[in-house]
Amino acid sequence: MAKGLPKRSEDYSLWYNELVKKADLAEHSSVRGCMVIKPYGFSIWEKMQAALDKMFKDTGHSNAYFPLFVPKNLFEAEEKNAEGFAKECAVVTHYRLKNDPDNKGKLIVDPDAKLEEELVVRPTSEAVIWSTYKNWIQSYRDLPLLINQWANVVRWEMRTRLFLRTAEFLWQEGHTAHATKNEAVDETKQMLEVYADFAEKHMALPVLKGVKSESERFAGALDTYCIEALMQDGKALQAGTSHFLGQNFAKAFDVKFAGKDGKEDFVWGTSWGVSTRLMGALIMAHSDDEGLVLPPKLAPIQVVIVPIFKGEEQLNAVSEVAHKLRKELLTDDISVKFDDRDTSSPGWKFAEYELKGVPVRVAIGPRDLENGTVEIARRDTKEKKVMPITEASGYIKQLMTDIQENIYSRALNFRTDNTTEVDTYEEFKKVLDTKAGFVMAHWDGTSETENRIKEETKATIRCIPLNFKEEAGKCIYSGNKSEGRVVFARAY
Question: Cβ distance 219 to 84 under 8 Å?
Fold first, then answer.
């Protein structure tokens, strides 16, 4: 164990919480249920943002920003959406404080500063965005409207966990408007593919693509598409969602357009989003008892060079070689840190960068200078290799690809090993309690059966896979006819 990090096998939840804090990713704030994302953690989020933002713009989307506050009457306009989020809403009722006449130095809410209409702090932005789209859309020439925003939202969670579930979190939310149903459905599916591509190629996280059951859909959507990932404790984590909204929000906010034939119709909508929950997925999917394991594409520091020296003369000699290697790596667009601090030992630094998940560590000492070599260590496999300094930059460049692919393969093998087909309810419960993971089982398609299974086992239908195979069978719970297997799991 590194720096007192608990073992995953003994207490996965404690291991996760301690790792988030000890790796300097985030910490609890003075505001209950909210977190402070620390510089190292935020730098990972920034790399996620940059990659996703490019993918959004490459598919024709533009960024905008909409207000944090939503007038209550707008929030209520789409009934299902309002009902779905009502219990999580924070509401602003007053706009001013004043001195407490009975307690000097304290402030109280000014009763004379009550808002004429209460404001909901956005839990999601459909209401304020669609009320705006009414002014932006008049004709088919204004469509499609492809907008994304990077923002924070507030959902008043009672039980919180850093990154996975906090009262305030960061995310992006796309909101698009289209002239036809087919265009909107295509957009919904396209953004699901963008999310899956990002998860697998950047996060090295294999995901299942599917559609949510009716009871698990986003409030106000006709269909919710999702990507589901499996964590190392066998629980599922919803990593991203893309919603086909139909004309629900257009009708709620009277957003119409005139077609080429001059006839008016309501536009078709989508919304889609991922959040800082992806940070939690990244941590839980790959990390180990020594700390973070980061895929090179998202690592803030891809290579750290640690000099081994005694005295200034040796440091100067080692530094000359280190800076030359660093320059070569920077030319290949690899981020490098040369840690020449004399306040910590090389061993302490090794443990620190292992904890922080730096993919590659290079050690250079006086003996290496004599032999013309360096020692290169991989974080993912912990393999070490001594090689000529002249070959180091080329080897490290290849390691960036090898480590990225290995981390993905390892996660994919884990998911394969922890995906189980079952045919009976007893077998279903046994797998959940002894093995966990994704459980493929027949379901009769009813919400009643789905809810009973959830109540009795705490397992939910994560998705109906996009590659759903028709397979006649019997529902594990009701024994009624089933057309194929769906994905169950206990989840975060």
Answer: yes
